[in-house]
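Example 766, ligand beta-D-glucopyranose.
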Amino acid sequence: MKRVILACILSLTVTGIMADGKKAAKWQYDEPAMRAFVDDLMSRMTLQEKLGQLNLPVTGDIVTGEAKSSDIAALIKQGSVGGLFNLKGAAKIKEVQKIAVEQSRLKIPLIFGMDVIHGYETVFPIPLGLSCTWDMPAIERSARIAAQESTADGICWTFSPMVDICHDARWGRISEGNGEDPFLGSRIAEAMVRGYQGQALQAENTMMACVKHFALYGAAEAGRDYNTVDMSRWRMFNEYFPPYKAAFDAGAGSAMASFNIVDGIPATGNRWLQTEVLRNMWGFKGFVVTDYTGIAEMTPHGMGDLQEVSALALKAGIDMDMVSDGLVGTLEKSLEQGKVSMKDIDQACRRILEAKYKLGLFADPYRYCDLRRAGKEIYTQDSRQEARRIAAESFVLLKNEAKLLPLAKSTKIALIGPLANTRANMPGTWSVAAESSRYATVLEALQQAVKGQGEILYAKGCNLLYDAQAEADATMFAREMRDERSVETMRAEALAAAAKSDVIVFAGGESSEMSGECSSRVNIEMPDAQHDLLVELLKVGKPIVLLNFSGRPMILNWETEHLPAILEVWFGGSEAAYAIADVLFGEVCPSGKLTTSFPRHVGQLPLSYSYYNTGRPLEGSQFKKFRSCYMDVQNDALYPFGFGLSYTTFNYGQLRLSSDKLSMNGEIVATVKVSNTGRYDADEIVQLYLCDKVGRVVRPVKELKGFERISLKAGESRDVSFTINAEMLKYYDNELTYGVEPGEFELMIGPNSRDVQQAVFTLQNQ
Ligand code: BGC
């Protein structure tokens, strides 16, 4: 009887409205019903079945029709698998789900995850690029479309958002995060979670977010992937934790542990991190999955054999094991030996079952496998239009001397460079579901844009890198034919095209796999093959526009000195090429602003605009003996955080404060009039920074505390105001006490972190 009632609770579905206006099945649940259901189910599970729920094995190459005979199928039938990941296609997924639901003893559905990091088949800019839009509705929308497409194709769990703060451009995975700032990173984390999960996962076109990589992965020493992290807790809480916390506060249903160590213990086995901070301090109720082989990797870290480290992970608060086979393979023995308790196992199992329940998988295991949806909702014209708009917003105009850009469509353009005619490199790193054969190259998009008006003379000009093996490594997942012609032949062809043109557009920089996982680099200047060609092209005497493709800040000193225009285009996704044409020809006015500092030299790294003064701060930029500086390079960034130009010009009026005194529970308002003084309608991102002049611990020289993206028509002006209260001024001291004390603060507003106006106010006790 009890089971009949539970089945009734489970089948409660109502309808809701989907993002595209159509009706979608909605699933509603309440906590007591979920608890009762999971209690009942767990009372019928064997120990091995419980451990099976904790297992997220590597999928293998399952293809439709063969699923039943693969090794994974046998494991699923015996109840030893909780979910699978990075398997693409609703039909395939449905078939695998069927094995779980029809052939395993308890018919528990699997959860299907994927790295849907910046879109599904409609691909948005890599996260670092997306962050440069500073456009929260656009970022939320990108995640919403990603969820719509993924859930139409069988996926209900995404390993995103990746919110690791990073100050080190050497680290390849800086491309996957939102840059260096905790405040902006937090707003983006919230927007992504809202976009993926919608209203608490009720609609079938929403998916569960997985916040990663918890924690501090972006602070790997020397920017080398997976490397040691060593950081004070004071710094963790002030600078690195806020985006994770913001994502959990926004309701993210799951988290992924990072590969690195935190305070001497791998994050995967770190109880302080996964339980004390995440659950006890922050109240997280979802489940934690390891990263790929995260448990097994604790052995080379020096934490013991697979049995030891599996027990350590479970005890630390890990619920699901990605690929190590540690939890499913060793916990029975550890239970017998008293190394873990049944309570520990039950707790992890419950969290996995609850996630499946919240996703409505018990009510309908095929909820995300509606084959009709897959045909209609993926890579639609509407989604592509949004991706194109958002990609154009992500580009950052670094330089535009003598208003070289935008170009007239009638211009004769020599399009040169190794990235000018590549399809595979357009989506960018971590585009698991991308179908790059459908995406346009820059050459195709420019040809289309100028049709009947101008001419595009194309020459590749050079390979990505001189060294063929290095190029093969740098294009591992996005391989296209390396040009076998000689350097001289390719160069001569490019110089001939350049000579016939009015302007040279050079599409170069990094390939998409020169950033991303295990793509750390110490030389982040323009690769020699491309630099040498640029030197030759310069001699032709035609103006050069650099379209710089990169998944990280590159060092662009030479380019800044010699080239009149530089547009940083990151990897803009499936519609990037069209978006590039939109910006080059002025259909869209560039508005992106950097979310990570572009260094002058790799030796400056790690680098951030939000640094702490030493006792011997440098004034100005010239070397001075016994001051904190370098003999051979300036301290500051070449292009600072928040920087980005437009085709128009903006004027910032006098900064006004409603009062220069702020009480503990009051507020003051800072206002500045921003005017569009140029000829183009355009967007501007107005930024607010604060500095606490005297603290309980040292405080950064500047911290972003607000921003507003505004649209101004040519000639239009608008007052932009920010409200400041004491809450915004709080910080953690070295006892991890969160608070603020009275005193003087500096407030700064400007178009980037460098060019700001200042005012001073005092926080008073009353
Ligand atoms: C990455 C994760 C990713 C996982 C699953 C790992 O190598 O670090 O970010 O989610 O693989 O593909």
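Summary: The two ends are 63 Å apart (CA to CA).
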